[in-house]
Design a protein that fits this description.
430 residues; alpha+beta; four-stranded mixed beta sheet; four-stranded antiparallel beta sheet; 11 helices; disordered N terminus
Amino acid sequence: AGHRGHTPTRLQTQPYCFQLELPVIPPTFLSRHLNTSGQEHNPILSLCPLNRGKVKDIFFRVYPENAAAYVTQTLNGPPDVFDSPISYNHRSGSYDTTIAIPQLHSGRFYVISGLQDAYGVWMTGRPSPGQLHVVVTNERSSAYDPNTQTLYVSNAIDEAQGGPDDFDQDVIWHEYGHWIGDVFHFMDGGDSVHSWRDTVSLETAGTEAFAHLVAAWIKGSPFLQNRFRNFTKSFGRNVENGEWGFDGFVDSSANNWGAQVEAAVAGILWDIYDSQSDDHSTFGQMVYPHHADGIGDTLSDGIGDILVTLMDRNISGHHPDNIEEFWSAWFQQSAPLGHTQAMADIWYEHGINDEPCCIGTTGNVDYDPQDLVDISDLSYMVDFLFLDGPDPICRAEANVDADPGGSIDISDQSALIDFICFSIPLPSCP
């Protein structure tokens, strides 16, 4: 608050001795109502006694800023603000007014409202990433820039692509996922050129997939949309089954396109997280018609173990940057997170393994990335059978004698010894 001829930096109580009795914009107001123009709230302002009948001209300066984010006009520019109209000649006493954020300014408040929602979800179990710097621009697309740690949000409206993204929360939450990966140094590599169904580098697919997971996690739904042409059209993606399409129609699916396609990798992360069991086997490039093959998602693990794997574990001196490193970190022998068969089924479901985890012959009990069968596999087997060691990562590999019932017992240990000591061939994977 201030008076004409004075430029305040924040809501002030001195030198004018104003006292604000209610928040100007409570969080529930921001998160629920600023997506349309003209929304209102009535704060009550008490003015201290003014000597000799003096009066004050009052206005409110509202900053799009909260614990999650703040908005500036340019990268290195001043804070973005909205000034309410001036109310002239007020004496001391109670002052009750209405502040309405017009459509022209409401987009940046909607951005920080969405980011506050994202921040609240993230803070349920993880340390704060800090405040995200946001610049709302006239560029045709939105992007997080790791070089300046700034989220550029497009408010452009044009026939080719105009959103505007400042009202497109799925996009904002996706970019928040990039911010999280950058701050905590995981899934933060790759290239800027990509799409839902492109074959790209492992790092690019992992980075984009994690951002899709964050958006779906915050939204509470696997259905993500990017709206454009001033909200007359949309591009939809389904992290559950890899589908994509325009305006509510399904064009195709990349559900099982493997570790270098962001749609498939996003599906892996979502299947670990979600509580919905499914078996989205594909037929060609489509998930229609569904023809369940008995190998699907049976895991409902939530977000906890995913973040443990990404934030608390290292592969070759760094946090995981792609889905292959994620697998290795999840199953680190010092503290494997388990669900071995369910995880293998999910990887198979999304096209990363041609067969469910066991490749070639059996015997790779410790799941060596080089698929070697040696004395370390025998040690792993002994620990598992007799010393309460960890479960084999791939039970099909540990079923060394290829028992049709899938049991892992002393006969598998004997088959390993026969191979290692006497070169008796191992059976093919079941």
